[in-house]
Amino acid sequence: MAEYKFDRNELRDRSGSKVALLDGKYIRDHRGSRLGEIDGKYFRDSHGSKLAEFDGRDVRDSRGSRIATIDDVKKSIDGIGGASLVAMWLFFVR
């Protein structure tokens, strides 16, 4: 069983506590502070720096090295989604 559950808008841990929120293209923590954003296939931090990219199968860091696949992400987070699911994994689970 996965440690987290994502329902397209909210990421919750196993006990049901809200960990994060997806607000359009912005990723926010449980208090509402903006931590990053989804910019097409790129994930950027709150300062606009590129953290990673997702091509539909692989997650790569800012230098292009593969850090995970979508299957690795789905082992940690139960839910539907592509880039949004990967963004939650990148910012909160990894």
Summed up:
The chain has 94 residues and is an alpha+beta fold. It contains two helices and ten strands.
How does this structure look, described?
The protein is an alpha+beta fold and 94 residues long. Helix content is 19%, strand content 46%. The chain contains 2 helices and 10 strands, in the order βββββββββαβα. The protein has a 10-stranded mixed β-sheet. A hairpin with a 2-residue loop joins strand 5 and strand 6.
List keywords for this structure.
94 residues; alpha+beta; ten-stranded mixed sheet; 2 helices; 10 strands; 19% helix
Q: Tally the beta strands.
A: 10
Main sheet overview: 10 strands, mixed
Poorly predicted parts? none
Sheet with the most strands: spatial strand order: 9-8-7-6-5-4-3-2-1-10
Portion in helices: 10-25%
C-alpha Rg (nearest Å): 12 Å
Mean pLDDT: 95
What is the terminal-to-terminal distance? 17 Å
* H-E string: EEEEEEEEEHEH
Number of helices: 2
Which of globular, elongated, flat, extended, rod-shaped describes the shape? globular
- Decide which structural class fits the backbone: alpha+beta
Percent of residues in beta strands: over 45%
